[in-house]
Prior knowledge:
575 residues; alpha/beta; 9-stranded mixed β-sheet; 3-stranded antiparallel β-sheet
Amino acid sequence: MKRGVIEVRVFCNKDLVYTARNNSAKGGVLGRKIAAKRPKGVPTCGTEWSLNRIRYFGLLASLGVVGVIATFVIYQPFMPTTWYREPVLVAFRIGAILCLVLGGRLIWRKPPAFYWVIVGAAALTLPFVLFAHAFGQFDLFSLLFHVEFGTEGASLAGLGDSIAVAVLSCGFFALTVLWFQALVQPQRGFMVAMLAILLVVSPLSRFAFSYLTASVSPDIVTQRLAQPQIIQPAIVPDIVVIYLEGTERSFARTDVFGDVFERISRLEADSISMTNVKQIAGTGWSIAGVSATLCGLPLVPNGLRYRNNFSAQTDFFSDRLCLSDVLAQQGYKPSFLVGADESFGGQKNFLESHSFDTIIGKRALQNMHSKADLGQATVAGVIDDQMLMKTAQSEYLRQRKDGGPVAMFVETYGPHGITSVLSRECVAGDKAELTSDVLAAVDCTALAVERFIDFLGQNRDGRPTAVVLLSDHLNHHPMMRQSLRDEERSNLVILHGLGFDPAPFPRAVRVDRPSSMLDVYPTLLAWLGLAEPDVRAGLGVSVLAEAPTLVEELGREALDRQLIPNPALAKAIWQ
């Protein structure tokens, strides 16, 4: 019997009563046309398939396996554990090989026009799968924000595995539909069903549904927006704020992560530490964490509702008074240092909107150091934290020499997430390198910060100095979500005073109240003596007083629903 020809033999009580053949290459396979040829009155007590059909049964089985796996792999980045990944990937490979070997040319027949709709949907899904796999969860607001403000300075270095998973997941889903359709030639409803499945598992579709069905009633948060009441401080200290990229307080869990956090934990002996700072909507990426802690405001997705005007918007809620604005009013000249591109995600726009006198990013650093040193300190377009902190020392001395009070903000990069950076002092050679070991990156960045704080102690010449250590957001590495539940994770906030006598607030204080990054700004105002202890600023309140935070009052999940989507809040913040 020729390849692709199906023979069905119908038996009744072991007697052959009917034989039918059908050319699969011309008219489909299995039931429809064969059933149409069967003469009326011929019984169908049972069927015996020719041995040639074993190939197609194997193909059908493998198609089913690949289809389930492809759908599962698309969805799995949003799941908290990974015990299933190795067997799933093995089955993925076996199923693909079976399809190619057993199907032959039959699986590549020309598909119907509607199939290309599925290909397009799979292609649109691919970047969102990549984003979710690389960072452990899908935050569309972060993605939309970076699309609006540009991704200049971003790098795909170290994301090879995530790119491969995204391409294979979406690609094999489309191939599964093609192969099954070519073999079985189902009705058009099958294609529609496959498109529906892809849309259901797509993170973009789930976001769109939640956005369109969400309602904020009553709107509690918009009416809480407040400008802080500033007072004249009794002491004008030097101020150094260090954002530790992705260095959340959760790394202090020695039962999970060992002693990787030991260097930072030592600073808490005589510091105020906020131990329960939750990550809420609009604060989960770098510039969002910076704006939340400096202005008390989340980066709600203005671009989603005012897209036509957003790309031309070069200021960030300039009508709002942020910490750097307050410091400028007090005679400080704030500077901001970062080892990555300062324009990424609109960060430079934010800094220029809020009274920063000096901005030192990758371009400025390249002009400040020799090519040889930069070659050793640069990896994947990012300058390591060792060189960044060395530059911060020079910036500190420059501001001291100028005679005014020092105000510096430094943003590290090291433990960025699934792809982190190890500085030269933390590797065997004298060249910064990428690593997937986020714990090693945390320890490395902590070493650079520890040495910088020692430098401040040795060079402050009796000046009272306020040192603030903050994580900009929770770490993006999927390991964190696999190791800890969301409610177990919190951001890092340490307020460390050098030379305050008397100290404005008691030292060695743990503030365990539930709060968010929005509450850091008013807390800093109160701690620095720039406002009363019960100050409100943006959407935050000082945790050094008794007023409840929004997290305490509403709970984190309810607060997230209040923040995004909330057109009234977006309008109040951005316009």
